[in-house]
């Protein structure tokens, strides 16, 4: 038995003392947490999707996004265990939400002096935020499993709870982009005929995979991305700032502290702090599974950065205009939500290995299509492309995120810190490359990293297959938490 973790009988007795409706209370916590993240990231995604197009001068938007994920790397290395140890998961989420607010406020006065520092604040809040969320979901999944007397396996519950959470979370893309499109397109006089949008740009030559990086854009510097009016942008920023305030209040008032479930898994007495957080995170890299997960984790950050910065600018803004970014990205959010809802059930019937293989082939085919596709001014085609990308992204996100929780029980902080670390590294690489490489080359890079990452994941499955041959009842290698040095 892992040190600090009670037996099933002790934990079951403790949970039963909380009352027969405790299972529904756990579901309520997941729902409130998911809704709060949905409201919060409605604002964040709705704003971030516009950055590379709105602030294209000097690549300010892309550099701001790179700063967000660059500071997220440092945040993941130094802050999660320390902040969670001081505040607990619930209040870590609340405080981290507040750290995002200056970024939204800076949109009223966008410049290097306002966006870069506020972007850094987002990154420093993001590390503790996502580690706290992942730890919270993993522990209450274990509590729910005990409350049902192990009628449902904990590893399956973790996937299901992550799925339920991400249904809410991915709807943020829908709401954020719906608000963005509604506000920015209001009063627009641009004509739409038979599903096409009039444009003075030679879309088939200039946009899509042919879109050149800013440093090679001498011929493209005159492209009009049809910037919205300042009044529209300020209204949009005010709405998004109100969303973030509402999200913080929702978690503070509506989510139970994990102290309620201390009987399920007690935290070690000697919490890590300061430089020890970095040591714990890096020490976790000593496990072979964690090393093999790095490429596929980085790929998730890379492909999300591509769709946020490069697709929105080189495909949508170039071909249709900035106001249509929200319209196209609504499809991404809807597809993400569908993937989040369906992934656990598809996994149950197809198995994790087959689903990830199918997703890899599907995503690879989509990238090849985007490399060869000649862009048009038919706006629905952009929505179809980004919807397909959203389906694949939803599967990647849930499967790899939940796998980190399943493989490393008791080491959630270190495991999820590594997940966010390498995901952020992938995002920084992609955002930084946005100003220097053509979209064609970036699509090839996304494809290559995905293939390498899938091979790494497949190696884990192969190693697990060998373990099960020796120990038929064992599904995963459980990594016991090492005692910390005093």
TrEMBL record:
Query: GO MF terms on file?
Result: potassium channel regulator activity
Gene Ontology BP term (one): regulation of muscle contraction
Using the UniProt record, give the first listed, main subcellular location: membrane
Membrane-crossing ranges are 26-43, 63-84, 91-109, 115-136, 157-179, 235-255, 291-309, 321-342, 354-373, 443-460
Q: According to its UniProt record, where is this protein located?
A: Membrane
Lineage top rank: taxon: Eukaryota
- The protein's name in its UniProt record: UNC93-like protein
- Organism equals Anopheles epiroticus
Family to which the UniProt record says this protein belongs: Belongs to the unc-93 family.
Q: How does the entry describe its membrane topology?
A: Multi-pass membrane protein
Give a Gene Ontology cellular component term annotated to this protein.
Answer: striated muscle dense body
Identify the keywords attached in UniProt to this record, alphabetized. Answer: Membrane, Transmembrane, Transmembrane helix
Gene3D superfamilies xref list = MFS general substrate transporter like domains
């Amino acid at each position: 038995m892992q040190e600090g973790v009670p037996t099933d009988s002790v934990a079951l007795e403790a949970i039963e003392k909380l009352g027969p409706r405790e299972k529904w209370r756990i579901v309520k916590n997941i729902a409130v947490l998911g809704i709060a993240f949905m409201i919060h990231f409605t604002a964040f995604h709705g704003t971030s999707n516009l950055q590379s197009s709105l602030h294209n001068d000097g690549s300010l938007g892309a550099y701001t996004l790179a700063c967000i994920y660059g500071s997220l790397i440092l945040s993941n290395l130094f802050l999660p265990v320390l902040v969670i140890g001081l505040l607990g998961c619930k209040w870590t989420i609340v405080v981290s939400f507040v750290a995002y607010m200056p970024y939204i406020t800076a949109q009223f006065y966008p410049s290097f002096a306002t966006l870069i520092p506020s972007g850094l604040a987002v990154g420093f809040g993001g590390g503790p935020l996502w580690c706290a969320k992942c730890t919270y979901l993993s522990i209450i999944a274990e509590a729910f499993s005990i409350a049902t007397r192990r009628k449902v396996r904990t590893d399956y519950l973790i996937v299901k709870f992550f799925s339920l959470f991400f249904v809410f979370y991915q709807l943020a893309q829908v709401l954020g982009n719906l608000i963005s499109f509604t506000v920015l397109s209001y009063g627009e006089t641009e004509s739409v005929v038979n599903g096409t949008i009039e444009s003075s740009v030679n879309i088939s030559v200039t946009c899509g995979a042919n879109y050149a990086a800013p440093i090679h854009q001498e011929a493209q510097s005159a492209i009009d991305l049809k910037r919205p009016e300042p009044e529209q942008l300020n209204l949009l920023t005010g709405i998004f700032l109100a969303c973030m305030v509402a999200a913080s209040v929702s978690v503070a008032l509506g989510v139970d502290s994990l102290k309620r479930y201390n009987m399920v898994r007690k935290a070690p007495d000697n919490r890590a702090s300061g430089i020890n957080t970095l040591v714990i995170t890096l020490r976790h890299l000593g496990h072979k599974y964690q090393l093999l997960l790095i490429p596929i984790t980085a790929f998730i950050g890379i492909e999300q950065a591509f769709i946020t910065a490069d697709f929105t600018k080189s495909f949508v803004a170039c071909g249709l205009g900035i106001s249509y970014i929200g319209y196209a990205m609504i499809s991404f959010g809807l597809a993400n939500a569908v993937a989040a809802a369906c992934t656990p059930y598809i996994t149950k019937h197809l198995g994790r290995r087959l689903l990830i293989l199918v997703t890899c082939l599907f995503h690879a085919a989509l990238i090849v299509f985007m490399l060869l596709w000649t862009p048009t001014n038919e706006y629905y085609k952009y929505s179809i492309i980004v919807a397909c990308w959203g389906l694949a992204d939803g599967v990647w996100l849930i499967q790899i995120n939940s796998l980190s929780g399943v493989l490393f029980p008791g080491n959630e902080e270190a495991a999820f810190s590594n997940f966010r670390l390498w995901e952020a590294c992938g995002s920084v690489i992609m955002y930084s490359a946005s100003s220097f490489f053509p979209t064609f080359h970036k699509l090839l890079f996304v494809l290559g990293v995905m293939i390498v990452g899938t091979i790494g994941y497949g190696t884990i499955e192969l190693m697990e297959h060998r373990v099960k041959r020796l120990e038929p009842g064992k599904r995963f290698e459980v990594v016991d938490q090492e005692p910390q040095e005093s």
